[in-house]
Write a structure and sequence with these properties.
This protein has one domain. Helix content is 88%, strand content 0%. It has 4 helices and no strands. The termini are close together.
Length: 98
C-alpha cells in the first residue's frame, strides 16, 4: 500500500504543478499574448496527470479502504489551486500509518 500512496502523492504533486502552470502561465499567454498553443500543450499534460491522479486515488482508496469522503477530498484537492500541496501532508501521514 505504501507504494500506491507514494505513486499517488507523486502524481498529485505533478498534477498540482501542472495546474499552476496552466493557470499562471498558459492561460495568460493564451489571452494576453494570443498564444493558444500554450494551453493546448500544458492542458494536455495537465489532463493526463489529472486522470492519472484519479485512477491512483481509486487504487489507494480501495487498498486503504477509505470512505467515499476521502476520494471526494482528493478530487476537490485536484481542482482547487494549491489543493494537492495542502493535502499532501495528510496523505503522507496516512501512508506512514499504513
Amino acid at each position: 500500500m505504501k507504494k500506491s500512496y507514494a505513486r499517488f502523492r507523486r502524481i498529485a504533486q505533478w498534477e498540482g504543478y501542472s495546474y499552476l502552470v496552466l493557470l499562471g502561465l498558459a492561460m495568460p499567454l493564451k489571452y494576453l499574448a494570443d498564444l493558444p498553443k500554450a494551453v493546448t500543450i500544458v492542458g494536455s499534460i495537465h489532463g493526463f496527470l489529472f486522470v492519472a491522479m484519479g485512477i491512483l486515488a481509486l487504487d489507494v482508496r480501495q487498498q486503504a479502504k477509505h470512505s467515499f469522503r476521502w476520494i471526494l477530498t482528493a478530487f476537490l484537492a485536484s481542482i482547487i489551486p494549491f489543493g494537492t500541496f495542502y493535502w499532501d501532508k495528510r496523505w503522507k501521514e496516512e501512508a506512514l500509518r499504513g
